Amino acid sequence: MFAASTTSSGTSDVQPRSGSQNESGGFTGPKPMLPYSSMFIFGPTNPVRRFCHFVVNLRYFDPFIMIVILASSLALAAEDPVVENSDSNRILNYFDYVFTGVFTIELVLKVVDLGIILHPGSYIRDLWNILDATVVICALVAFAFQ
């Protein structure tokens, strides 16, 4: 449950590992940042990467994304396929832009935090992230060709 780290003076101090469970079953904190550079630009101490890591590991980040996915699915189900130029479809089309924007921001935050592919734990090494990236890229391409 504890990770020993060596300070610059050569002494070792024992601290609880972040993201691990303690003896009582509770979590001790957010996941640690990966020690690798992200896209050869953002090192572990880069303020932009640290901000992205902070946002991605917020307590309500994943539930917020799940709510947006649910709302996006409901909006997709509410579209009228018979009358394509209806007022409700035009409004839902604006919501589609908002949903795609939120998902694009999520993708960018996670890529800056985790890196793309080259090291263990990077964005593309998780199958759910591959699915997310595929959906976001297809939506952005569809918007580009409208």
UniProtKB/TrEMBL annotation:
GO terms for cellular component: synapse; voltage-gated calcium channel complex. It is found in: Membrane. Keywords: Calcium, Calcium channel, Calcium transport, Glycoprotein, Ion channel, Ion transport, Membrane, Transmembrane, Transmembrane helix, Transport, Voltage-gated channel. InterPro entries: Ion_trans_dom, VDCC_alpha-1_subunit, Volt_channel_dom_sf. It holds the Pfam family Ion_trans. It is a multi-pass membrane protein. Residues 59-144 form the Ion transport domain. This is Voltage-dependent calcium channel type a subunit alpha-1-like. It comes from Plakobranchus ocellatus.
